[in-house]
Amino acid sequence: xxxxxxxxxxxxxxxxxxxxxxxxxxxxxVRRLVPGQPELDTLLHWIDTDAKITPLKSLQGMIWNQGYxxxxxxxxxxxxxxxxxxxxxxxxxxxxxxxxxSVPAQKLIFGHSVAGDLTGLFGGFFDTRVGGKRDPxxxxxxxxxxxxxxxxxxxxxxVEAELDAAAAAGMRTCQLVRAEDGTVATDRHAVAEDFRAxxxxxxxxxxx
Length: 208
Fold this sequence. Notes:
The protein has helices at residues 2-17, 21-33, 39-48, 54-69, 81-90, 103-111, 136-146, 160-168, 195-202; strands at 96-98, 124-126, 154-157, 172-176, 190-192. By secondary structure, it is mainly alpha-helical. The protein folds into 2 domains: 2-69, no CATH class; 81-202, Rossmann fold (3-Layer(aba) Sandwich). A 3-stranded parallel sheet has the order 3-4-5, with helices on both faces. A two-stranded parallel sheet has the order 1-2. Strand 1, helix 6 (103-111) and strand 2 form a beta-alpha-beta unit. The chain starts with a helix and ends in a 6-residue tail after the last helix.
């Protein structure tokens, strides 16, 4: 839902706000990465190919910001997520997000979730400015930013290549394999069907 929403509104954003400093800076980076091509064409191509490129994510975040502000967007989270996050945060578990979506976009999703504002539960938000999610060095930088040894960090993802990268950096890993999204289970990482299963796996409390 989010990506088609942004695609449909990208031309409008560039036409209405392309000269504003925040948008202009991202467009300059688009031109640097793909010189000689119209910025809109490049951005739409990146959306269509699900590219994880920072200026695209930043511009998508701006579009989503307006959508959340006017109520046309809400952040979808699975029903098990918010109760577990709230419980774990309340007992001192440090939570953080690492996503290919920009930090502002992450905060919009969790700040306007169907379960309420969840942003206060997280101690850190990280995006591709840290590095690619399939690059082990990114997880080393995350460990430093969190101030924790990699071995004390549990990284959750449904993407096997991301889990491989986190494991290569020394992190513990768990693949979320939800029946709803058709994820194929790995044989290289621990597997859980939802956050309650994650809790049981690492001996965290489970909400009543």
